[in-house]
Amino acid sequence: MKTIEPNKASKPTFKLGRTELILFVVIMIAAVALRILWVLKIPNTPVYDFQTYHEIAVNIATGYGHSFQGEAIAFQGMGYPTALGLFYKLIGETSVLWGKAFNVILSTLTLFLAYPIFRKLTKSWKLSIAAYALTAFLPNYIAYVSVIGAEVFMAFLFAAVIYLQLATFNKWVRWPLLGIFIGLAALTKPVFLVYPVVAAAVHYLREKNLKETLAFVLTTALLMAVTVAPWTYRNYQKYDAFIPVSYNSGYVLYLNNNANNVNGGWMPLKDAAASPELRAQIDEILQHGKRSEKLAYELDPLLKAEGKGWILAHPLEFAKLGILRVQTTFFNGAWDIGSWAMNGLYPGVPQWTIQLERDLKAFRAVSDALLNSMNGLAFAFVVLAAIPVVRSLFRREEKLPVGMILPTVNVSYFILIYFVFEGQARYNFPVLFLLAVCAVLAVSFIWRGVSSWRCQN
After folding, report:
1. Contact 365, 334 (CB under 8 A)
2. Which InterPro entries match (predicted)?
């Protein structure tokens, strides 16, 4: 059986050549400048979940703890509002502008992590620079520094998680550190509670050493659990229930999987299909509209059971909604930029002109085309790479390049999560840098194929 050699560039550390270093620095400076310029020039205000994040962060900074409307809350992951609240407390300011400054810092750190990741996933510095430029100037990654949401923070944590899987320093330092960062990611997005299994799959496919992979997954899972445990204990004290991170998983599962859902996304709880008995229970818990859904932790087990029951009873309808969720997340353009990062620009404001409207539509068209094209190429890469990756699971002697394994497994993980739970355009944010490198690799393979065909003729 022929063994496919792993990517040689993924093992040793690399040194940047002069041209490579210059391009890296120029791209970094330009990217950070664009982020700062966006914050200063493009108006927006926090709404919906973003306003909730800001309120919780302000409460943390001002001594009221992790609370919302005067009550303890664990509706969403605590990672981002806690980090933002600590940042507010550190600088002594709680304005939205400082929240945006925090995002600029996080986005810059993500860029610093992204380039070594790309260098370890590819053999060519030119491909790495191309993926880096695409990531640095991606409209989403620029615009979301203005959004008081978990996206920029989560992208940083995920980049750190990927970097630590590819780094080569002492594993008994690196593995626990990876477990801690996975724990921080889980405290931000609870779906990362299962991520040690994803990381273990990547590790095994790279090393084909079952004993070492077992040690790896146990170490990372243990340190993740240690990182999450204090918050879990806090939740037990507050709610007298086992809530590892948040109590919205049942809420999300049910709203996105019920007989009245036709688009695979979020819908108002009052519009979701419910029997008279279930509706009465919901109304009682919400005190007939007097209590916020974000504070009603008792809803979670009730709605989780209802959502699971509907999925099991309607597998085909669930699959249809899952497909819609994936499409909404990865192939619905960049409409979310206008809604969340530019919502201070709308018809009726003093600065609104025909020229501005035309410019905004042109920006949306370019952003849509770029994002959909990138994601289409990335999906093609992942789908085709999934065949040898799955096959390699059953062939102990076959090792694949890490540039094939890591993006394929991780992107597939995100696709699966969104297939089951909820699809929104902004949910693709943490994985966009991996989609960028997949797209660049896909273009490279296509170009080599075309060049080879041309030379033969």
Report:
1. no
2. LipidA_mod_glycosyltrf_83 (IPR050297), RgtA/B/C-like (IPR038731)
Q: What is the pLDDT of residues 147-205, one digit of tens each?
A: 999 999 999 999 999 999 999 999 999 999 999 999 999 999 999 999 999 999 999 99
Would you state the structure tokens that stand for residue 181, as one six-digit string?
A: 């960062």
Q: Which residues of 236-263 are buried (b: 16+ CB within 10 A; e: fewer)?
A: eeeeeeebbbbbbbbbbbbbbbbeebee
SS3 72: strand
71 phi and psi angles, rounded to 5 deg: -125, 150
Structure token digits, residue 165: 């899987």
How far, in Å, CA of 412 to CA of 431, rounded?
10
Nearest to 7 by CA among 98, 121, 94, 114: 121
| The two three-digit tokens of residue 59, written as one number | 């409460």
Q: Which helix (H) or strand (E) holds 387?
A: helix 354-393
Query: Is 425 within 8 Å of 334 (Cβ atoms)?
Result: yes
Instruction: Please state which of the ranges 162-176, 350-364, 377-391 shows the lowest mean pLDDT.
Output: 350-364
Sole residue written with tokens 């990672």? 79
> What contacts 118, CB < 8 A, 6 or more positions away?
127, 128, 131, 132, 437
For residue 67, the Cα-to-chain-centroid distance in whole angstroms is 24
